[in-house]
Amino acid sequence: MRIAITGSSGLIGSALVRSLLADGHEVVRLVRRPPSAADEARWDPEGGGIDSAALEGVEAVVNLAGAGVGDHRWTPAYKRTVHDSRVRGTATLAGALAALSAPPRVLVSGSGITAYGDTGDRRVDESAPYGDGFLPGVCRDWEAAAAPARDAGIRTAFARTGLVVSGRGGAWGRLFPLFKAGVGGRLGSGRQYWSFISLRDQVAALRHMIDHDTVAGPVNMCVPEPQTNAEVTAAMARVLRRPALFPVPAAVLRTVVGEFSTEILGSTRAVPRVLLDTGFVFAHPGIEEAIRAALADERH
Predict the structure, then answer these.
(1) Sequence-ordered list of residues with C-beta below 8 angstroms from that of 267, at least 6 positions apart, any chain
(2) CA torsion, points 274, 293, 61, 34, in degrees to nearest 10?
(3) CATH class of 2-298
(4) Any idea what DSSP says for residue 39?
């Protein structure tokens, strides 16, 4: 299968590329810079430009591009960057796919479980409405931007990703060094739910979305039983055999990271109803299994 991917240099994108190539698929990586390899094609996600010729013959597209949510303090300018990098890029891609003489059969486009906002201890599946706040608004606009592809008859599914357990990047990439050094601890009250997924399961779930023709619309990418931050903290301490004695008070988090602290301290108890209903099996459904898988990946 010939598959085009945006965001192929990121944590999830690079793992997905490795998985697809290992199974003999052909990958076209859409990059912002001038292409430097035969498998690369140029696109300008925010400016609206794309090498449509490189998309001809593509059967599936995975759209993972977007500025890191927690990479910088949430100034008004950076919040615009987070929003526009997703919305404009998706609109550019969806429009180009819709205009192809032979469009792909599926577009898997990124999103997040942050679509639901703070749900407390209430479980939410894909039928739940968007929540209130900045990130739910980003997810709403991000998903809406794919409308040209869906309207053109392309099966369109949204990967609402949770917290990806990996030492190679993302939020967990920052946690591992702290816990390994013995200075990890719960964040705030620790009662907030973290809907997580191992990197290996994330890649497998994306491929499940590509391969299963009944999967469309939002898809929660997280394990069936989310854990509280306190439970995650305890698991990290057990697996790494380090103490977890340094809780970070909510007030300190707000001072250090600003508005983004509302996401760290917020609770989203999402469940992957669509994945389960379409036969997906998690390799790492528990937090300790996901942590051990991440440590094994670091050694390879």
Answers:
(1) 118, 119, 120, 121, 191, 192, 193
(2) 150
(3) alpha beta
(4) T
- The answer to whether 178 touches 238, Cβ cutoff 8 Å, is no
Q: Is the separation of the CB atoms in 67 and 85 below 8 Å?
A: yes
Confidence of residue 224 (pLDDT cuts 50, 70, 90): very high
Rounded Cα distance, 271 and 292, in Å: 22
pLDDT (tens digit per residue) in 153-175: 999 999 999 999 999 888 888 88
17 and 64 in contact (C-beta within 8 Å)?
Answer: no
53: Cα within 13 Å, side-chain hemisphere: 2
Average pLDDT taken over every residue of the chain? 93
- Which residue type sits at 141? D
Contacts of 211 (CB under 8 A, 6+ apart): none
Q: What span, in angstroms and rounded, lies between the C-alpha atoms of 34 and 46?
A: 16
The full set of domain ranges for the chain reads 2-298
In the block, tokens 């996901």 appear at 290
For residues 45 and 122, what is the distance between their CA atoms, to the nearest angstrom?
A: 36
